[in-house]
Task: inverse folding
């Protein structure tokens, strides 16, 4: 593709002169013969100004029509804004690029979905069986999976660095002197579309990496690890179960901030002071976390960036990239009063 430098070399003038001529700068003192020669050479070399190339690319983008497949329902998003933030990141980036999201599908609605093979691409948010997704949309090169629990080697994927996040929590709590550390978190499933069969339960990554980190330290206690659902009510019930034990942890890592909200309520009702009697760390850094009593130490999951990254990966696929890319997004530990430390946020 010809450049201003190519035209300048052919015309025997500077690149600055070529640029000003092509932009019709009438204040430039140059002969009409030179102007004509520059335009002629530009035409011969099929030069297209960057502005025109950009306009052409924007016009091509505006014709792209993609779909968004969410496993979560609107009610799920209301309960836990984790997936809401991913969706907003996708929608915002598409709006910036002029890309149209013409279909938003909800896999957990139990409504049978018809194939959408006519789309230019599909972003899938949540763990949904890949073969079910391929029946819905058959162009595997143009599917991006976000927050899928399995390793999907053939597809573009975006997920959080759960091991980095979990090790940061354990390291921070150990640095505060805690050895008896518990964990409360939900289950993880690879879900099915248009099927009466339940999804396949997977090892939830936060719980897996918590156990791994604690075993390496020789501090893992199985009775301190409880499974629950990803909701405030379930976090409340799980903490109540934990408090029935004769021996209690001095700190607890909780797999989502909504669950941590429920857990804090249970602790308050039992007269257990946070962080004096038990330190609490959540996960997500939802807006309310900073306003709880005490303010919640939590892992900031950069979920909106996950959504934006998914759009970028899909765009690259549409433009012809062949190799699959697996993107892992780091997290940030945001330290507040619920763990009894005054340290600042750290990567």
Result:
């Amino acid at each position: 593709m010809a450049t201003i430098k190519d035209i300048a070399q052919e015309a025997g003038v500077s690149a600055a002169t070529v640029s000003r001529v092509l932009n019709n700068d009438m204040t430039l003192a140059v002969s009409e013969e030179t102007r004509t020669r520059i335009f002629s050479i530009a035409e011969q070399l099929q030069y297209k100004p960057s502005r025109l190339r950009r306009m052409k690319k924007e016009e091509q983008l505006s014709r792209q029509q993609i779909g968004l497949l969410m496993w979560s329902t609107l009610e799920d998003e209301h309960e836990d804004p984790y997936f809401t933030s991913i969706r907003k990141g996708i929608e915002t980036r598409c709006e910036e690029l002029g890309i149209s999201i013409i279909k938003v599908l909800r896999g957990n609605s139990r409504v049978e979905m018809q194939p959408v093979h006519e789309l230019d691409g599909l972003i899938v948010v949540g763990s949904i069986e890949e073969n079910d997704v391929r029946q819905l949309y058959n162009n595997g090169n143009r599917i991006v999976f976000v927050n899928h629990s399995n390793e999907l080697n053939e597809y573009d994927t975006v997920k959080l660095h759960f091991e980095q996040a979990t090790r940061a929590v354990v390291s921070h709590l150990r640095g505060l002197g805690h050895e008896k550390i518990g964990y409360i978190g939900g289950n993880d499933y690879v879900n099915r579309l248009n099927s009466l069969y339940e999804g396949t339960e997977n090892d939830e990554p936060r719980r897996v990496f918590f156990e791994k980190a604690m075993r390496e330290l020789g501090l893992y206690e199985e009775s301190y690890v409880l499974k629950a659902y990803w909701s405030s009510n379930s976090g409340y019930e799980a903490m109540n179960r934990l408090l029935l034990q004769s021996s209690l942890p001095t700190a607890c890592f909780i797999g989502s901030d909504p669950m941590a909200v429920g857990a804090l309520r249970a602790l308050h009702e039992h007269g257990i002071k946070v962080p004096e009697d038990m330190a609490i760390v959540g996960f997500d850094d939802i807006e309310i976390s900073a306003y709880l009593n005490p303010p919640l130490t939590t892992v900031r999951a950069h979920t909106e960036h996950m959504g934006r990254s998914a759009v970028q990966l899909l765009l690259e696929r549409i433009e012809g990239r062949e190799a699959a890319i697996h993107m892992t997004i780091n997290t940030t530990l945001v330290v507040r009063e619920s763990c009894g430390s005054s340290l600042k946020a750290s990567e």
About this structure: DSSP finds twelve helices and 14 strands in the chain.
